[in-house]
Request: fold
Amino acid sequence: MSMTVASCLNSQKDHGQIQIVFGPMFSGKTTELMRRMKRYQIANHSCLIIKYAKDTRYDENGIATHDRQTLPAVGAEVLSELTSQALQYDVIGIDEGQFFPDIATFSDKMAQQGKIVIVAALDGTYQKKGFGNILDLVPLAESVVKLSAVCMTCFKEASFTKKMVSRDKVVIEIGGADKYMSVCRQCFFSPVKNHDNKPTTNSRSPLRALNNDLSSSSVQSSQIKGNKTPVKSVSSPMKMSQNALVDVENAVKRLF
Ligand code: ADP
Ligand code: MG
Ligand code: ZN
Reply:
């Protein structure tokens, strides 16, 4: 039985879906987004990654994990800016999805057009409130997971993000290990000791060990070009602030 052009187009559109990867900071959301994107690329899908343009913490031209993996990405402040570009790809990955005001409408529109949309996002603020419009995406999604990090105070599973600099009232402030920590339910309410941005004084604190282990090694970065090119690895230095986590994996290995 031969397929008509219309039914072929319909079957392409049938693949549209939204996958959400939630979790607190340091839970591996960007790592998981990269894993899924690389996998789709291996399966010969063209892939586009979108990052929030104002988030240039680790890498200006790509998304980056806390342990320094990077992939190229296009920046935007509003997703609709990239509609025509995104329509040229099969799979659209969006990192830090909570920062985009039109995350729900854009993702749904793309999924309706047959795109696989993967969104990595903080589900909650450091005040345990829904972050921006991100929760509007949940009823529109095919799949939702919430990852956990390691509690930076007691080493248990951490499902929440806590702000260390709590004197100001700014809820949405971009930052990394210098401003935020991942914590469990109990440690969320324990007092924040380090208002001066210094590592905690707890001698068992993973945060302290990680921040003390600063080094200046070069990093591996991978490229997703889309259009069926294989994933390539190139060496490139990556800018990191003094407070960012460096050599995290080695430090984590020593800790456990
Ligand atoms: P996210 O995007 O959720 O902030 P990333 O994918 O960028 O997370 O980074 C995850 C990596 O962060 C882990 O693989 C680990 O090497 C590192 N890391 C640093 N601190 C922690 C922590 N407290 N819990 C888990 N992973 C951590
Ligand atoms: Mg991330
Ligand atoms: Zn804890």
User: Anything to note?
Assistant: The helical segments are 5-13, 29-42, 83-86, 103-112, 185-188, 206-212, 248-255. The pocket of adenosine-5'-diphosphate (ligand 1) is lined by residues 23, 25-31, 65-67, 149-150, 152, 182, 206, 245, 248-249, 252 (CB under 6 Å). The two ends are 59 Å apart (CA to CA).
